[in-house]
Design a protein that fits this description.
The chain is mainly α. It has 9 helices and 2 strands. It is 67% helix and 4% strand. The chain is elongated and about 55 Å long.
Length: 185
């Protein structure tokens, strides 16, 4: 999560020795974790430098936005008819946490949890996992670009999506989400 939160900068070396020492784990464990970060797009392997924090560039952000715009509404369409009352209540609780967030980090975490909560009924694990990965990568971009000027606010789209979920209106929920995701920068 340090990479996502921006505590480690793009291009910063991820030294196995330092990480192993800091967390008191073996080099094998660190190597596996770094490979996992690489598979998620959060780290990259550079010849003769080892693993480094992956760069943040406009093309990557544009790709993330387009992929989210394509996949999240699809997952929501599949989710709405299957969501339980408890899952909708959970999404509503998370939405309230986002509304009450006082820091960009707290808001971003609640926002990511909200987007995952509304697709909890999707029953398509590969799609859900891909969206989760996209959410994490986008969180990194958001925090790097917007955290310093973020201000507490209510998200009317999230409120409208919750209302559509209560009405079991997948079409309306999907339309709101599509509009919501076009606003990503």
């Amino acid at each position: 999560m340090r990479v996502v939160r921006g505590e480690l900068r793009p291009g910063e070396k991820l030294g196995q020795d330092n990480i192993a020492h800091e967390f008191g784990v073996s080099h094998v464990t660190v190597r596996e974790a770094l490979l996992h970060l690489s598979a998620q797009g959060l780290a990259t392997s550079l010849p003769r430098r080892g693993m480094c924090v992956a760069p943040l560039d406009k093309n990557t952000v544009d790709e993330l936005r387009l992929m989210r715009q394509a996949l999240e509404p699809l997952a929501l369409q599949q989710s709405v008819p299957r969501l339980t009352a408890a899952q909708i209540a959970n999404a509503e609780t998370i939405q309230a946490q986002g509304d009450a967030a006082e820091t960009a980090l707290a808001w971003e975490e609640a926002n990511r949890m909200f987007h995952m909560a509304i697709i909890a009924g999707c029953d398509m694990p590969r799609l859900t996992e891909e969206i989760n990965s996209l959410q994490l990568l986008y969180a990194r971009h958001f925090l790097a670009k917007h955290a310093d000027r973020w201000r507490p606010r209510l998200d009317p789209d999230h409120h409208a999506i919750i209302a559509a979920l209560h009405d079991r209106d997948a079409g309306r929920a999907g339309a709101i989400l599509r509009r919501h995701l076009t606003r990503l920068s």
